[in-house]
Design brief:
This protein is α+β, with helices and mostly antiparallel strands. Helix content is 24%, strand content 36%.
């Protein structure tokens, strides 16, 4: 398979070997380079020598779980592996080894090392994978925020541990380039992890995963609003794209065709004298559409104005075919985007 494809042990022969009704315990993990696993193993050997109730995770099993799928029909493995390919368009991530953490905090069962993610790249990778797997019905995202971490040891069966304060591992950056779909086979000697498919991050920067397309669009749109050219945005718009903007402001209407949408964006830039900036709070694939929460800020007549919107994007063949922009407060949005600057009591 070419770079960017999901590769590994998934094959037709493997399909034939699966028995009807067979189930598999699956999870998707971010691989750590051997150098990072060695650093964690050395730190663990020094820090945990006086805690005999902890059982070290084999060095080759040190990874950061991104999505735990649990027990799934083995017949779904190929589809799930293919869905993981959605993150081939995500960049390589370089988190930093962070503080040790006991999980759960009250009666811990594992000791982990947090992966520090200051720029949010790892969180975005997990969100993209989560969206792709949830869209197929194979994964149910949890209610708690994602905490990137590497489990380094587990508490022995029937043992109890009082969490202690430990020195952190060396705060080194870890360059992670691969995401792997694993099957966990449980046995008397512990779990054995069988790789089923591998995705190389950054191997398909033009990946057509809808969430990735919208994410790239906003990166290019940000450059456009900051004074750059429109070529990057144009490449991500379908020729017959439609942009729905409700209300009665100077930018309201149905903008049909790529040139009309680019003219709409240029009007936004001119109305705000080039100060318009968008911050994306989050995006998810729901019922085949990318649903995104975002906020905007700009300066008009020396005063800052701000607003919040929901954007719904329909992506076809790696390009945005339609967008519905929905302001949280339509009246305020209309006032901000009027041909004249909003009055001071509406800013």
């Amino acid at each position: 398979m070419s770079a960017g494809d999901v590769s590994g042990d998934v094959s037709g022969a493997d399909d034939a070997s699966r028995s009807p009704g067979e189930r598999a315990r699956l999870f998707v993990a971010l691989e750590l380079p051997a150098s990072a696993r060695d650093i964690l193993a050395r730190w663990r050997g020094t820090s945990l020598r006086d805690i005999p109730a902890l059982r070290p995770v084999p060095v080759e099993h040190l990874h950061a779980t991104l999505c735990f799928l649990g027990s799934r029909p083995a017949a779904q493995i190929d589809e799930i592996a293919a869905a993981c390919g959605a993150v081939a368009g995500e960049p390589v991530v370089e988190p930093q080894l962070g503080e040790p953490v006991w999980l759960p905090s009250r009666r811990p069962r594992v000791l982990a090392a947090v992966l520090s993610d200051p720029d949010g790249a790892l969180a975005r990778l997990q969100a993209s994978l989560s969206s792709a797997l949830a869209a197929g019905g194979w994964y149910a995202p949890g209610s708690r925020p994602f905490l990137p971490h590497v489990t380094v040891a587990r508490v022995a069966k029937d043992a109890r541990i009082r969490p202690s304060v430990l020195e952190p591992p060396p705060a080194v950056e870890v360059r992670c380039t691969r995401v792997t779909l694993y099957r966990s086979r449980l046995g008397s000697s512990g779990a054995r992890y069988e790789p089923l498919g591998v995705v190389e991050l950054g191997s398909a920067p033009g990946a057509a995963d809808p969430v990735s397309v919208v994410r790239r669009f906003h990166a290019e749109q940000g450059r456009l609003y900051a004074g750059g050219d429109a070529a990057g945005v144009r490449e991500l718009l379908a020729d017959d794209v439609v942009w729905h903007v409700p209300g009665a402001s100077a930018i309201a209407g149905e903008h049909r065709g790529a040139e009309a949408v680019l003219a709409y964006m240029d009007a936004r830039r001119r109305l705000m004298d080039g100060t318009f900036r968008v911050s994306v709070h989050g995006a998810s694939l729901i019922a085949g559409r990318v649903v995104q929460l975002a906020g905007g800020r700009a300066m008009r007549d020396g005063r800052e104005v701000a607003w919040e919107t929901v954007g719904i994007f329909r992506v076809v063949g790696g390009r945005i075919a339609e967008c519905w922009l929905i302001p949280f407060d339509q009246a305020e949005f209309d006032a901000i985007w009027s041909a004249r600057a909003p009055s001071r009591d509406r800013a």
